[in-house]
Amino acid sequence: MRIAEQVSDDVLLRRAAKGDEEAFTLLYRRHQAAMYRFALRMTGNTWAAEEIVQDVFMTLMRDPKKYDAKLGALGAFLYGVARNRVMKHLERLPREIALEEKNEDGTGSGIVLRDASTPATWAEKRERMQHVRAAVLELPAEFREAVVLCELEEMSYEEAAQMAGCPIGTIRSRLHRGRALLMAKLEMFRDVPRRARAAR
Amino acid sequence: MNCEEFEMIGLDAERDATLSEAARAAAREHSSTCSRCAALQDSWQAAGAELRAFAEDTAMAEAPARVEMRLRQGFRTQHVTLRVRRTAVVVGWALAAAAVLAGAVSWRNWRHSQLEETTNHVNSVPPVNKTQKNNSAAGGNRQIPAVVPNGMPRPVSAGAGSSETLVADNELSGFTFLPGAFFVDTEEAAILRVRMQRGALGALGLPVNEERASEWIQVDLLVGGDGLPEAVRLAQ
Questions:
Q1: DSSP state of B218
Q2: What's the complex ipTM?
């Protein structure tokens, strides 16, 4: 039996809880990308992001009653679960952020960059993205979360506050401090080549 | 708006929906008059552009297909296991209920047949008048007129086909205690109907009329728990 694409998350979840694999798969396909991006941007690690996404949906599969439709949308609930997993991951591995992450085959960055018009442009862009990525990943977890939610996920302050489970003022404050740190780091990254050129 | 407030809320004033229009205007005015804050805003805009570029580059990132495969496998395992477990529980309870029901029906049938059998035997015992009972209770044994030659009692059919009848019976009226017998435990006693020659009563210690000793008679013997006859009465 095929399930219509426009069936709501709640209906799909009820069906999945009764053992409907197709409903569960549809739910997964709807939400996996957002969860994965969030986890990837927060951890900077594809393996960790993969594990976190799997954990999030395993939680939903094993105990679908944990989600209460009255308290918010399923997406928000999944974000909450993903956030907890990310925080646990960051607590476990506070210093294991690899700047030069390798893929399974040992090549390139874990975050795949698209749009490489020329090799020089591609290299320059890749370097810049790596700097941004490193700057984001070096932020303390709370500030990083605010930056990821508001700047990368482009959520409003209210949405970000809801996801992070804190008041808007706290999000604003974390974002302010996160931005200050981020700007300092990006300035530093920009200045390194300039200083290198000046030294020559 | 001062520099500190601008840093806090002014940098992103245009995007912050929670700010009022007046607050946005104040932020714009401050950045136009304060060179430090204007530089900060430029710096933030540059950082914002880089962040957006970074966000765009990862915007299409998706979990690999193997995650979906693993999850679907896990889903199948979980739900098949659950289904099997539920079925096992239901079947277990159904079997237990069926066993209890079968036991109850069997017990009821057995009990019913027992009651019927007892009723039949009770009905088959002939009524005996009160006087006989009183006489027997007084220990008199002269009411048995028959006298039979020596010989062991021979069980005889009480009904159509059976050759021996052993009955637990509460109806003890009409029995004459045999000499030496004083007390019968009625719970363990049974009534045995036998066909014997009248002369055999002499072997039980009863007086026998010698002229009629060869007559065949039916008597009920009240047999105690030890298997010995305790009392006797003439069957009707």
A1: E
A2: 0.72
Of B50, B68, B75, the CB nearest to A128: B50
CA distances from A155 to A147, A169, B119 (A): 10, 15, 90
Domains of chain A, start order: 8-95 (1.10.1740.10), 112-200 (1.10.10.10)
Question: Which of these, A112, A96, A103, lies nearest to A47 by C-alpha position?
Answer: A103
- Enumerate the domain spans of chain B: 3-57, 62-101, 130-234
pTM: 0.56
Residues of chain B with pLDDT under 50: 128-169
Interface membership of B32 toward A (CB under 8 Å): no
Q: CB neighbours (10 Å) of residue B6?
A: 22
* CA–CA distance, B71 with B50 (Å, rounded to integer): 35
Interface of B with A in 59-118 (CB under 8 A): 59-64, 67-68, 70-72, 74-76, 78-79, 82-83
Which of chain B's residues have a Cβ under 8 Å away from the Cβ of A62? Answer: 78
